[in-house]
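User: Quick one: structure for sequence A, then sequence B.

Assistant: Sequence A:
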Amino acid sequence: MSIINGIGFLYLLPKQNLLIFSLYISIGWILLSVYSKFYEVYRYTRPVNILSLILRQLILFCLFVFAFSGLYHELNIYPRPIVKYTLLCFFIIGILKFTVYYLLQKYRVSFGGNYRSTVIFGYNKKTLALENFFNKNPEYGYLHKRTFNFRKKADSLTECFDYILKEGIDEIYCSISELTNAQIADIVDFSDNNLKILKFIPDSKEIYSKKLRYEYYDYIPILTLRNIPLEDSVNMIIKRTFDILFSSIVIVFILSWLTPIIAILIKLESRGPVFFKQSRNGFNYKEFDCYKFRSMTPNKGANLHQATRGDQRVTKVGKFIRKTSIDELPQFFNVLFGDMSVVGPRPHMVSHTNMYAKKIDKFMVRHFVKPGITGLAQVSGFRGEVETDKDIIGRVKYDIFYIENWSLLLDIKIITQTFVNAIKGEEKAY
């Protein structure tokens, strides 16, 4: 963005027309980048594919600048300067893109950083080829630990799982032809429940009717079972930008004047701090301090026991702010600091997370993204106290759907529904 704007200002346009040109090409660049997948460069992406992305973006951007010159023909921007401008931009961008790409590779080889440890399930020509790729190409950043043979050796899945947990393996690669359907199901469950990336080396067997992502490591085809939109760099930037803007607006225009009022009401009714801090599990299972307005009298069980219907610990002020969800507003500071998102799976107390991780299948999948102040499960009737296993199972189901189908429009829809529910009041808001 800096390159295309800077060179445009210095070379293409007179100074008085900078603002409109900057807005036009900046918005255009973002739209073209999303369409052409210009930033989808991974550790296993080949240089020829990067060059292809650059050339595709070059052609599209050149046409876009031509469209600008036609729209604002009074600026007298001629074709030859446009071509020179785009070529110069992409010459610099190409150099920077390949520099970062090769510096990362050099960093992995020389310093052993930015690595992902891997294991392979199955022993055949395809898995040997993948193992060979990992071992002979350290610049891609894969540290292969072990290939499990389910034919000659008596490698059981339990032993494999123990090894993965002991060695801190990041990614599991499976040959479908070497595994039974029951084994595949066990591996999928293990990966979900322990936050491991699972990928498949495909063959003629059917896996599941999911949105599979097809990728190439050199010339070896790889399938990713769960496609998470928020792993895409563009989507991450969009969501983080939205979080920062939205949380800043709430903090400046609502919390700035509401906090003193709530603080006075809380202090008048009971002794204790205005804010309540609680450890919860967030992205990648990391613990963070989650902030709320204190709605209960200070008690030792606050970090262990969830609020129930008619809970005697809840104060009169606390009952009101819990009913209207005002008690959750300080979490916008968590969003601004990067621990949470405005929308995402609701974080649980550490003690509850540990319990549900062992008890509820795929509960850990929720930690593939940042937790949220509100979420799809909350606006779908699974808010508040977990009274039965059905409640937490339903919550996990909606959270996984959100993770696999994220979009900015879905976030806006959830925020709108949350606001409507807060005004109407909810049955389980106690």
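Sequence B:
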Amino acid sequence: MKPITTADPQSRSADLLADNVARLRELFPEAFTEGKIDFDVLKQLLGSEVDEREEKYGLNWHGKRLARRLALTPSTGTLRPAPEDSLEWSTTQNLMIEGDNLEVLKLLQKSYSGRVKMIFIDPPYNTGKDFVYPDDFRDSIENYKRLTGQTDGAGRALTSNPETSGRFHTDWLNMMFPRLKLARNLLREDGVLFISIDSTEVANLRLLCSDVFGEECFVIDLIWRKRDGAPNDRTIGSVHDHILVYGKTVSSTSSRSMAEDNLNLMPRTEKADAEYQVFKEPSGPDPKGPFRKIDTTLYFPRTYSV
């Protein structure tokens, strides 16, 4: 499937802003006056839950309001079948969509909102060259065509995101924020999101996800070893990346168990089991299960006295 632009209003993606207002009206009808939200009344209804302090804990950056607005702006695109690029078109149960991921996420809202069990994303790590952004930060079908070379760009300058840029982290956050908000909308109540990232933006991503999901929905930071030996491109080369896991619901047991289920762990082989021993004592086996002996001198430096 490929996204294309259309002028047909029936083909627009879900209006998330209108949905939010409708839900608010259903919960707090008295907070609406002449069709508009009266925030003073709304704050009274929410009571002590409203944080009115001037200084608040959280992650802020230039462009955050615009990025939030982008997530709420409906897409004017639609999906075009591409059977010529597909295999077993009439029988397959799988779907691949090629296009700008922000527009695609918006288009999926109508059919899949609140229905997705698990999402795994591998966003740009913001290494300085792994993604390109437009200087005025507009995400749209037209922008996607410019980025992919489908149009001449109408004279707009496109650039990579070098570390020397004064907006190095800002541009990356503006790119990620609306996509994470839309991804969360797609998850069902016990759904989970896995995000692969490296040390460059893991701290910002953790704060960003806490903003979108709530920090109480954090499940785990998985560490996976991506190479055997450290690279020599920096003083201390990294051999691992991170996979942040967040649940849709508030630290629910279902989200944590689903995260574990989605790991699809394989059982240990007989050879691996042979390396483990059962701790024997009068009271019986160790309640924590089998353990493996290791040589701690491999992990701790030796010390000498003179």
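The first strand starts at residue 2 and ends at 5. The radius of gyration is 25 Å.

User: Thanks, that's what I needed.
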